[in-house]
UniProtKB/TrEMBL annotation, chains A, B, C, D:
The lineage of its organism: unclassified sequences, metagenomes, ecological metagenomes. The keyword DNA-binding applies. Keywords: DNA-binding, Transcription, Transcription regulation. This is Unannotated protein. The keyword Transcription regulation applies. InterPro entries: Homeodomain-like_sf, HTH-type_TetR-like_transc_reg, HTH_TetR, Tet_transcr_reg_TetR-rel_C_sf, TetR_C. Residues 25-85 form the HTH tetR-type domain. GO terms for molecular function: DNA-binding transcription factor activity; transcription cis-regulatory region binding. Signal peptide: none annotated.
DNA sequence: GATGAATGAGGTTTCATTCAT
DNA sequence: TATGAATGAAACCTCATTCAT
């Protein structure tokens, strides 16, 4: 999943201007890992620098050597996720076969991909969503980056479907793809809550796939 | 649900067991109002008891006379919203005419209703979502209450549509309605972010309505 | 020395807007007293909120209830000093008899007054001087207030002396009075260092008085 | 005093005992220069080792190779100033002509010298004064060194003037010279604050010169 | 009912300082 | 010689929370 050189998620050193060397980069990585890990078990607003540092086997002071605050660390994590995850989702849409006979299977794969990605990064995505809702533009851009790859690919697919006559000509590809991605993202985010209501992952996946295939290929 | 008496959103006095009189209820209301107001301009995790109290023209000590903590106040607000908003959304679906010729117009009204409700209570709904995502069951139940009325009504409508032969017989009404409500809620929540991308409220409403009508009445 | 009502040196409550009541004012006073006391034995830059609070028999949190930071407390002290001390010094000059036969005695009293005031408030005056030198205008104004009463009085006296023919007509009263006050303030501030060099307080007082009398009354 | 070799203000290496070579001395010089520079724009108590080091293009660790702490660097700077400045001021007094016809002109030069020196080293002199006031004997000695040359020279001049009959025989040369130097130093230090009050540099210089000439040569 | 006042508790942040390289 | 990196230690400052009035 992307060879991502160690400095991909790095801006420069915070405290002073120096670019960190190998040891420093490793520390930074450990801090990011701890942040990510802690986020799984802790509410965003309960994340503490002390805890992150301890979990990374270092001291708060060291944390501040690499990040001005927790938000910055989250931003770095979000950046990585937007890159990796965004590409992954886009590929699922783009490399799938959407012609009527295969559309439903492809749609299943896409739905599955969303569910899986959210499953794996639930907490971080939650932070991104929250910050976006609160108006933070840096996070909003990352969120857009995460979703837009698939959305654009979907839009192109829809345009193709319209041209092929599978979809009515008054279809609005941009709006439709946007709404579909919203649906995928939201269901993926709230899957747990829904599961409680008699819909397990497979059920959800198929329901999503049906709407998706239907909307994109009228199948 | 809820006899709508003035104390509907009230539990009893916290500190002592006394039931608040008129003056007390007024204070409580002011505190709730301030909380709601502050929430518009402040991130959840930045809400402070002092600020709420001061905004309500009273003191922190007084806040604690009515709520054990900020979460409790938010819960009270969420409770009211779930009641009012839930009924409102359910009515929109239930009282609409979903037979093919009218389905699209009804769908537009429903979509509009979601967008409007979220517009008006963005911040509070954000808190509800966040808490739900973080696993808080009290908020999850309120969230369900907010969404389930419309979801159930939609489900019944879909069942009717299947029976009427408008929708294929292998349709899964529960999953489909769930997904559709997800879509509505998510788009409503992120409308602003989407508006930035060339989709204004009307556009979004129509795109939503199309999918909705299509899914429910094959129109 | 000025009955100074208890709120003379008070701005309003810091944390919230409320005006402190009697108990609060007392606490505030204790904090100021501790600050002043500690300043005697501690360098300005080594003053800590914790220490001040402890010395006042309260907690740091309480300190912040009354002052945003240490500087604010010092400013309050300086304000009081400027008021009280400024009036005192002015009176010494103004109420003295500067006609030739008495000028020297009056000058002695003035010099003595400076030495005494600085002796009693050495540390605080040091802070005022330092802040002034560093360009802080709030402190500079207070410093001016402390010195200008006497300076102005002196200036008027000099004008009178010129008119009376005791001083040459090309005397510049403003500059002369300014310089004389500088001399008094500086010697008062550094008296200890000078004492080390064979000049005790009496010696200094007389040396100052001589220059003073000479400059003001040509005696 | 001081053979003015390049290492005059240097003690030996701190960390190890090694005597610094040329490169080392250059680094040390850069650190001193940065300290001096930063002092212009920063309050003493806000000087940080990190900032000094970074400003010198090196690291904190390197700073500690040459100075045990910031105070040591300031002491080194003060030492240089006391040497250079002290000699300069003394020469002004000593090499001037104080006989009645020339006294005023000489006095003007002396006053000008003080104003200029303080103008150029305001911040450092401020530190020296502060430390002196706070009882630090190392700084007090340097301060004395800075001022005593001129003071002693003045004292000798006064003695001469008494002998010549220009001044009354009961004059106390030591006290008088001390007070005069105080006046010069203080006005020089606070010149800016005074300028605000309608006294520009020239005005001040002349007012100082008048008192000086008058006190030393009865002119 | 309401609230001045006080504070324990705890996280944040900053630095001086050290060491291994 | 120089310096990345790390951190102990200490202040700072903020809040939720509690009483006594």
């Amino acid at each position: 999943m992307a060879t991502a050189d160690p400095a991909s998620s790095a801006s420069l050193r915070a405290v002073d201007g120096r670019v960190p060397g190998q040891r420093g980069r490793a520390t930074r990585q450990r801090l990011l890992a701890s942040t990510s890990e802690l986020l799984e078990s802790t509410a965003y607003r309960d994340l503490k620098v002390v805890d992150i540092a301890r979990a990374a086997g270092t001291s708060p002071a060291t944390f501040y050597q690499y990040f001005p605050d927790i938000e910055a660390a989250l931003l770095a994590l979000a950046h990585d996720l937007a890159d990796t995850g965004g590409r992954e989702l886009r590929d699922l849409v783009e490399q799938g076969e959407w012609s009527p006979p295969h559309a439903y299977t492809t749609a299943q794969r896409v739905a599955e991909g969303y569910l899986a990605l959210w499953e794996q990064h639930r907490a971080l995505i939650g932070v991104i969503d929250l910050a976006t809702l609160e108006g933070d533009s840096r996070f909003r851009e990352l969120r857009t980056e995460l979703l837009s790859g698939a959305s654009d690919a979907l839009q192109r697919t829809i345009v193709g479907a319209v041209d092929a006559g599978w979809l009515p000509s008054d279809t609005d590809p941009r709006a439709l793809s946007g709404v579909l991605v919203s649906m995928l993202a939201h269901v993926a985010a709230h899957r747990r809550g829904m599961s409680g209501h008699g819909m397990d992952a497979t059920h959800l996946r198929d329901a999503l796939a049906r709407i998706l295939a239907w909307s994109v290929a009228a199948v």
